[in-house]
Design brief:
By secondary structure, the protein is an alpha/beta fold. It is built from 14 helices and eight strands. Helices cover about 35% and strands about 15% of the residues. About 35% of the residues are buried.
């Protein structure tokens, strides 16, 4: 099955990352736009100034069924923050990056700075929705696989809120959704894995496959750590978010470098809307208006099948709590943008 736009189920194609011109001077701030007066060469050999993103852009990514939608709608309470539903803008930007050099005219007259400007303007246009918010959070599990491209566009180190959860409860959440809808609904994975999908064990194996929602997101987190991006990643544990929301949000604001904000965890309005029927799982993006901690669901829904997945939590818990062992072995990623 082809990957639906903006879907978390399949990885977007990611090739060589772009490197922004390395000759930019220190930025000057004018009316919330960053002008980099250093020269870059355009198609006709003239030196051109580069105008950076109009808004501060951050990313929400991580594991599915781990509170990314809940977190986004909590952040939306801040009048300075804008949030997207599950976003497909990364796919559009990737199409520009991947197809640019296939155009004969651009092959004859290469212009890498122009390509980067177009990619940046695509994101600027998408986020310029007239709501006047200064900070935007784009939500897509695919961003962790394309941080080099993101940083080339942003011209700074990216900041990613990585939502995580006990893998067993991630699988239990999918199992609960499936059982709730199985009487009258066929999930897309069931079409492709008819026999495996008939048991709890088989359904878990399908979902943790390398091209399915849990498996690909898990692999993206691990790969981003291996590529040295840990300092750009702030892990948001679903259990901590629901049990200690105030402390969790305080840590997020500190990571982002934003002024603290008092959120209302008893009245969360869902401002992001998605048609879950298009994504094939009814109820996938519903959230409750009140944050409530819950007990682990995996004993009820997975039983002994859960045992084989317990060790998968080691990777993100080590990175979140002690930076070992996954992150320590990987040197920090080289920035794909001009040093500032």
């Amino acid at each position: 099955m082809n990957r639906p736009p903006g879907s978390a189920y399949f990885q977007a194609p990611v090739g060589r990352h772009l490197t922004a011109p390395a000759d930019h001077a220190q930025p000057l701030i004018y009316h919330k736009k960053v002008l980099r007066p250093g020269p870059s060469v355009g198609y006709n050999g003239r030196q051109e100034s580069v105008i950076s993103m109009k808004k501060a852009v951050h990313f929400v990514s991580g594991l599915p069924r781990s509170g990314a939608n809940l977190l986004s709608n909590i952040l939306a309470q801040n009048s300075r923050f804008d949030v997207t539903p599950t976003s497909g803008i990364i796919d559009i930007v990737l199409m520009v990056r991947n197809r640019w050099n296939r155009v004969v005219e651009f092959q004859a007259a290469p212009d890498e700075p122009a390509k980067l400007r177009v990619m940046r303007s695509v994101m600027d246009g998408y986020f310029d929705n007239g709501r006047g918010k200064e900070v935007v959070f784009d939500r897509s599990p695919a961003w962790l696989s394309a941080l080099e491209m993101a940083e080339a566009i942003l011209e700074r180190k990216a900041k990613v809120l990585v939502c995580v959860r006990d893998i067993r409860d991630v699988l239990a959440s999918y199992e609960r959704l499936w059982r709730r809808n199985a009487g009258t609904w066929e999930m897309a994975q069931e079409q492709q894995n008819y026999y495996k999908w008939q048991t709890v064990e088989g359904r878990c194996e399908v979902l943790t496959g390398p091209n399915q929602s849990v498996g690909i997101c898990y692999n993206r987190i691990q790969d981003a750590l291996n590529r040295g991006f840990k300092e750009r990643m702030h892990f948001v544990d679903y259990d901590e978010l629901t049990r200690k929301p105030e402390q969790t949000l305080e840590a997020i604001y500190e990571f982002l470098g934003e002024q603290p904000y008092r959120h209302d965890f008893q009245n969360i309005q869902q401002v992001t809307k998605e048609d879950d029927m298009i994504l094939g799982i009814p109820g996938l993006h519903e959230i409750r208006p009140v944050i409530e901690a819950s007990e682990p669901q995996w004993p009820r829904y997975l039983g002994s099948v859960a045992d084989k997945y317990a060790s998968m939590n080691t990777m993100w818990r080590a990175a979140k709590n002690t930076a070992e062992p996954a992150a320590r072995s990987a040197p920090a990623a080289e920035p794909a943008f001009a040093a500032v």
